[in-house]
Design a protein that fits this description.
The protein has 15 helices and 17 strands. By secondary structure, the chain is α/β, with parallel strands linked by helices. It is elongated and about 70 Å long.
């Protein structure tokens, strides 16, 4: 069992907390602060235990100097100050005497937010490449390291693996909650147990299917990846997305688990994604050669609901349609609404599915909504996450 923030004496200690403040910002305004709010329990615990709190986070990708202006963490410092109801000092440096001096002048209960860790990627990908010198510098700022950024736990970066390799380390309350809930899906599921998989490509979900097909009772397939399975079943898919390199995988899975793999029976199609003027809802066999499947239809929703109604555990990764467009959001919305009322453990595994759940008003309607799409996906594949593996054991 990994050490947690509870296992350390934080009094008057400089505690580096790797958080995930990778939130959407438009014109300097945060449009969704969920990830900031999810970090508050760990940050407040450190403050209440008289720690000097140093926060590290990335924001977006930083490939050019121009990216720095739009990906500064300064707006997040203001929002965090409001949520904590205390001053958060923002240091617009990632390593410098200015940052070192600011940390050395901290008093117990103070909070510093360091500028975007990925600014260090402008000169040789030092953050995302886990540069040892950068990890040593950041580690030199603190006495204890707490990783609470589940969204980057599947990456070996200087700001997580680099620091944790040097300092006494533990996980925060958010990662603890993520691991506890996802462990249910992996090692202690209630049955019947259904997994809903959507998204674009089969290749992104092969590991999950291989790992969960013997644990779950049903694997329900939607989204763009469904069309490769349908093609493998000998059904027409028109001009829909096809992961041609993985048709043989789909054929094998369908043959080995014919009663477990559940595919759509109808869909919402159009001849053009960008200008949906000829949208129609049809059964799978009726798709024309120039039509693209962009959502599951009402008949598929009914089939999926009939399976889900008796389930005790449902894990969902990937929307079942191109929900960003209203006309193709019906399937995802219908399933979210149904699952929100289901008497079962329901786990939404980050990414676009989590965004859909939160933005459509279902944030508090599920057992757990993960903050990490890629990290939750890799856990469901049965992989160890580098940012957690490096943390010390109790």
């Amino acid at each position: 069992m990994k050490k947690t923030i509870r296992d350390f004496d934080l009094n008057d200690k400089k505690v580096i907390i790797r958080v995930d403040f990778n939130v959407p910002i438009k014109d300097g305004i945060i449009t969704d602060d969920n990830r900031i709010r999810e970090s508050l329990e760990t940050i407040n615990y450190a403050i209440e235990n008289n720690a000097k709190v140093i926060l590290l986070s990335h924001l977006g990708r930083v490939k050019t100097v121009e990216d720095k202006e739009k990906n500064t963490l300064e707006p997040i410092a203001f929002r965090l100050s409001e949520l904590l109801d205390k001053e958060v000092m923002f240091v617009d440096e990632t390593r410098s005497e200015i940052l070192t001096d600011a940390v050395n002048e901290m008093r117990a209960g103070d909070v510093i937010l360091v500028e975007n860790t990925r600014f260090e990627d402008l000169d040789g990908n030092k953050e995302s490449g886990n540069d040892s010198d950068l990890g040593k510098y950041w580690a030199s700022l603190g006495d204890i390291f707490i990783n609470d950024a589940f969204g980057t736990a599947h990456r070996a970066h200087a700001s997580n693996v680099g620091i944790a390799s040097i300092l006494p380390s533990g996980i925060g309350f958010l990662i603890e909650k993520e691991l506890k809930n996802l462990d249910i899906a992996l090692n202690n599921p209630d049955h019947p147990y259904a997994v809903i998989l959507g998204g674009a490509k089969v290749s992104d979900k092969i590991g999950v299917i291989e790992n969960l097909v013997n644990k779950a009772d049903y694997i329900i397939i939607g989204g763009g990846m469904a069309y490769t399975f349908l093609k493998a079943s000998g059904l027409p898919i028109g001009a829909s997305l096809l992961d041609s390199e993985n048709i043989s995988f789909c054929e094998r899975i369908l043959k080995e688990y014919p009663d477990k793999i559940i595919l759509p029976i109808d869909n919402v199609v159009s001849t053009c994604i960008d200008t949906p003027t000829d949208v129609r809802e049809i059964f799978i066999n009726d798709i024309k050669d120039n039509e693209i499947g962009l959502d599951i239809g009402k008949a598929s929703v009914k089939v999926f609901k009939d399976i889900l109604k008796d389930c005790k555990l449902v894990v969902w990764n990937g929307p079942v349609g191109m929900f960003e467009e209203e006309v193709y959001s019906g399937g995802t919305k219908s399933l979210l609404d149904y699952l929100s009322k289901l008497d079962a453990k329901t786990i939404i595994c980050g990414g676009d599915t989590a965004s859909a759940a939160i933005n459509l008003g279902y944030k508090d309607k599920f057992t757990h909504i993960s903050t990490g799409g890629g990290a939750s996906l890799e856990l469901l594949e049965g992989k160890e996450l580098p940012g957690i593996k490096v943390i010390g054991e109790k």
